[in-house]
């Protein structure tokens, strides 16, 4: 069997007669009849019963038609995918981000992207920054956001967002009513720390050392969201990304400004290859979301 025979059969089933099918396909009626007879010989059963010049679909013909419709739907999907690849370079897009941006910035940016690209499938992965970097380098992702602590060898990296950190405290904490928190205020206080490799933690430790302050670390975690949860569990205070902390404020979390300022810095990552139009549009959506939140 070949595609032309299947097209002739599908046309007869859809339009009811060989003459109408021939008209739609732009071929002769005998050519349609011949294609269907050849198809029947190929598959080994009759698709139509011939009665007084009419072609009546057989029971087997109805069953076969279902499979043909599924196949034609698949072909239509392939044509659509080919059109997207022709116009944009890809029919889908793979994006990853660190946990801090997975419930706000990136979902909102995907929403922006979807408004102009409703047919494009988006796959979102939430990983640690080091894993994201490796996935980008291996060409498993099209675009990603990671913390600036990663090794950028083998990937294209551009600055994305710089966010001023805040100190998270629980209601009733000794620093709850301080207008600004300085390193000396944290000396020997129970402290929920970010992971040792985190550049924000290293920046904070530099500030602490300059002022002779040494908070008492009780827990370490790689995620600002977990810091927020641990602070609300009254294990201590901790430095967090305010964007991530937003969802915890209604649960009583209190954010205090830090002096001197400490920052979270992130990078936009791409594989070392030419960007498709879809990737460029996703990058634009991410930048628009950054600007809407007044991030640097």
TrEMBL record:
The keyword Transcription applies. Belongs to the LysR transcriptional regulatory family. Pfam families: HTH_1, LysR_substrate. GO terms for biological process: lysine biosynthetic process via diaminopimelate; positive regulation of gene expression. Keywords: DNA-binding, Transcription, Transcription regulation. It comes from Roseibium marinum. This is DNA-binding transcriptional LysR family regulator. Residues 1-58 form the HTH lysR-type domain. It comes from the Bacteria. GO terms for molecular function: DNA-binding transcription factor activity; sequence-specific DNA binding.
